[in-house]
Automatic annotation (TrEMBL):
GO terms for cellular component: plasma membrane. This is G-protein coupled receptor family C group 6 member A. The keyword Cytoplasm does not apply. Residues 1-20 form the signal peptide. It is a multi-pass membrane protein. The keyword Zinc-finger does not apply. Homodimer; disulfide-linked. It holds the Pfam family ANF_receptor. One of its GO terms (molecular function) is G protein-coupled receptor activity. It is found in: Membrane.
Amino acid sequence: MAIFSFLIACFVISADIASSCQNTDDFVGASSPGDIVIGGLFAVHSEMLHPEEHPIKPVIQNCAGFEIQVFLQTLAMIHAIEMINNSTLLSGVTLGYEIYDTCAEVTKAMASTLRFLSKFNSSKDIVEFKCNYSDYIPRIKAVTGASYSEVSMAVSRLLALQLIPQVSPASSAEILSDKIRFPSFFRTIPSDFHQTRAMAHLICESGWNWIGVIATDDDNGRFALESFGVQAMSNNVCIAFKELLPAYLSDKTFHTKVDHAVEKIVKETRVNVIVVFMRQFHVLKLFKKAIERNVNKIWIASDNWSTAVKISTMPNIRQLGTVVGFGFKSGNITTFQDFLRNLHEKPTENNKFLGEYIMLLSVCAHLEYHDFQMCISNQSQDDLMQNVENKQHIWRDDFLNANIEPGFIHSTILAVYAIAHAIKGQCKTRNCKDPSAFTPWEV
């Protein structure tokens, strides 16, 4: 049987020490060794920068828009792994992790996933092409993530090649439940089917039978829109208009389409209820424009942004009217809150996300709460190192705890524990300190 090898290339894109990529290890956002390593995929930044130069080159670009809430999810994953390692759950077998930033982009997520697929202990990150991966040992045993359904769909198709289990704490697209197309995908949240059905039922029971819908123009937004449309029809709810906004903030038509969507809301005077299936940073842009136009409606929030602190603390947010949100069931996260209080004592050498957050605190320290939050989101990795020079490092104990979205934190911790319990089942009769004791598909 022929075996082909692919070498994962890592492109040098800048001298920015916060994000420069001199080799594949630089591509990792946070890591820790262990007998068994779990991968993580999170959209710690909201967008990948796109250069104006032509021709476009196959280079993984820097990112912008540091997302506090997603950064907290990476910390929840790390906290869960530390809790498991300090317990008797795996009987002396330790979990390690490699967490990567997808920057909310499929392209960047696929690069990270290729590294997950690379052969264990390979010095050159070689991915072997084989007809049968039953005995193949990749560098990780399972993956937690991704943050967005569109990314999870792409990643899951690649992971399915080796049947590496992927457990997402946030991807809710109904199509991901299809085990034919996504055989190794799991999640710790309900699919959009349940959410859209509940939304349609609420709207029907409240007598709001003439509504508008706005969604992100990506796989998740389109599938949610389709699912909601079916549920709305069965509940005799009429949809007056549907608007799709570009998935990426870097899209040159983004602001024009936001303006068009707000104009549609203003003109449709009979529509008093707007259902919104969008990413948090899209909602921020939409609401900012809606506040400027003095729009006052009832907004139905999907689980993706219903508990977002950055949205609920927007200036003049109350002028928009009433927000009715759907969210994930949460659990006790007091141990995670304690973990955050001691976070400033942890080293940053193996956690670039934490290092970047500390630099952002210093750059934005002079601002009040909402402006402080927006300052953190608006810094690009390219600009950060220039702005941080001669800044004194500070720490704000309250900020991370104030930005916790309990549902997402709980579902992330559940994802890690689900993987750990599956690993425990494999380790009952095997020496799991040996990385080749079992393969990912057995998990």
